Amino acid sequence: MPNSTAFFGLKDFNLLRSLSTELIIFQRIIITAASFIAGTAISISAALSLMKGKKADLLTITKD
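-> structure tokens emitted (64 positions)
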């Protein structure tokens, strides 16, 4: 007797659910890494602006 789920069986559904969980975890890792890299870039840019003697606020950093 066929399974009563609409498109796929229960095993496929569990596989799909575990894959989506892994993708969510991977996405969070990527977002965390991207924010860390962006924060590091802003910090380096602020340090360089300070060494050049410029005022180091966020607006001047993003304009440069």
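The mean pLDDT is 75.
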